[in-house]
UniProtKB/TrEMBL annotation:
It is an enzyme of class 3 (hydrolase). GO terms for cellular component: extracellular region; vacuole. The active site is at 125 (nucleophile), 235 (proton donor), 235. This is folate gamma-glutamyl hydrolase. The lineage of its organism: Eukaryota, Metazoa, Ecdysozoa, Arthropoda, Chelicerata. It catalyses: (6S)-5,6,7,8-tetrahydrofolyl-(gamma-L-Glu)(n) + (n-1) H2O = (6S)-5,6,7,8-tetrahydrofolate + (n-1) L-glutamate.
Amino acid sequence: SVILFFVLCFSSWAHTQEVINDRPIIGIVTQEVYKSSKAPVNATSQIYASYVKFIESSGARVVPIWIRQPKSYYTNLLAKINGVLFPGGGVKLDGSGYGRTGKIILDIATQMNDKGDYFPVWGTCLGFELLTLLVAKKDLRKACLAQDLPTNLTFTTGFKESRMFRELDRKLENSMKNRDVVIHYHQWCFTTQNFSTSGLDKYFKILALNQDSRNMTFVSIIEALHYPYFGVSFHPEKVVFEWPMTKTHKRIPHSPEAIQVSQYFGNFFVNEARRSNHSFPSKEMEDSVLIYNYNPVFTGKSRNNPTVQKYFFQ
């Protein structure tokens, strides 16, 4: 029976590899508006526009995913889109609409993938933390000092065997290893010890590490062993689309090498979404939910605001 199960699973995943969908649509989870957002009075949720641009610039379209909705809303929407991005932000994971929505989405995505219906999920910074919380079912974060911290990437043994990096060329690999091409904005980290003692290392493979400002080593890139789930503790979208020069946000790298690295991550995830054959039943339904129905606000002109643009939703 074990052999039969393996054959069936392999057959399902092999079939999904044949799917090439060149019109992918990716959902980005909204999150609660918080005090530092400079939000309109009536806004209840938001998305940083840099995430939208990050996805669009790699050849996909974006649908905002509302928080605090019934499970049926997420089940219906995920059956029509081709992947989900959990963005970074400043909300609490426990008790927030963002956190609860993330749990529902990952449960649905896992059910889909278990049936051979390929559905990728990406987590950036807070989204990375959310993925680990949902899998471990407890908060394993450790306080760290990684705010406005540009770094290179220290890859783990066997990283080139991963889905994320198996097509990485030598030139870009050298840039990732030897130049400060990613930017960190987080006060919580995961150590390799946390991963091993909690059993997370049986679900995720650690692909890269970094050190915070106090030289504490932490996990910076993960990939699920048996699911198309990926997480990065840094912000690839900021390198290309955020331009702050404030006291706490002034070290984002914008070098050609850093731009190429960020584009690599965006292209990788959108290519993963191309392996999903989900679609909307009509153009009218598709058009009604796309991010194009909303206009971003130029938040960057406000004093000390580290974000260039945001979408606010009522």
